[in-house]
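G., the chain you wanted modeled:
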Amino acid sequence: MSPPSIHAAATYGLTVRCAFRKLFLTPFAPELHEGILYALAAAQRKTGALLHQITIEPNHMHDTVTTTKANLPDFKRLFHGEVSKFVKAFLKENGFEAPARVFGDGRSHHMRLVNSAAQLVYLHYSDGQVVKDGLTRTVDEYPGFVSDPAMMKGTVIRVARPALYFDPRTTEPVEELRFSMPPLLQRELGADRVVEHLERARRSMEQAHAKERKFPVLGAERLMKQHPWAEPASPRKRNPGPIPSFRVIDDDELEAHCEKETEAFRDAHEAARKARARGEHDVEFPAGTYLMKVQHGANVAAPDNESVLAADEIFEAPRAQLPADALRALSEKLRGYAASVDPEQQADALGARILAGQSMSVTQKQSPRVRTDGEETTKRLVTLRGTRKSSAPTDSPPKPEPPRDEPDPSASARDERDPGEPPDEPGHN
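Predicted structure as tokens:
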């Protein structure tokens, strides 16, 4: 199969998984995820990518980005490659054996998010993954890093260079991690509406899973005591097939067009590859070809007027808000997705598989500095939630966090509207 097409100014959902499902990214120390964010900020600065969301789970990461140049592979190499090297150094520094490879071959995937519905749903999917995976009851209880939806309004986090691995001679002492709104969502919905949709979807998802859950969550304390070399039990569900290279939601015509465009790209790429192998070095590859252009200087065609996937995003385009009926349909789609719970998936979630896999032997070196078993209480990690620099700073003191074993008394006061009412739809501005 030909490689996926790579284009400038496109929004992607990225996933990278640890080799053999190992828990190498377990947040047993706050410096681990801070180092990951430092690498992300450096990759962002070097490639010009726009960051929208990131979730760092114990054995994989999700992030949503928009490329401003046709350089997504460069971004992935700089981000995932540096994270892999840093994690190995960090594990070794903390007394664990360093793996030969943090992320296994074929463990990285990117999916083009074509329309606003696909982008909004994917952002919610990534945002709530720690709850759906049975790691914690709420996103805020998760001891690792999950970016908040409101950060897309322009939050900047200053991340200091970690004390190990990153060479002071070639890296910056501080990197700035910049969050922004996906350009398409900014134009069609506006930042305020996007954030409100995602925040309400998060609360709805947390409530739905709490109501339907038949087993306890792993919990922050037990999560932080997991051995990085531990391996969750294998999932009972089998992979239904290859992950698609793009996603379109609620637009059959657009989806069909993208399917035809993808098939045409693959056919044209394969034909051009065979022609070049025959010695026809002037053959033209289809728009979106990356490796042949970068590594071999191959000729690449410009996108035609009918292209959707190959057409560049217009960042400075005037706002073209979706019609009222489309906004309501999008709101209902997200609400339905957030409130749905698959019992089989819940029972087969990462948290449940971690518990099921605890009987599996861990033969790698046990750290003398990090306790991964016993009854000793582990101090909850302090993520970077308190070190962000927002576009709208406030001088008010932070609200104290309620006890873990009691419900948040402010939960019902966050939004007094009927939960069935779409947030901030036309006529409610």
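Residues 252-277 form the longest helix (26 residues).

Shout if anything looks off.
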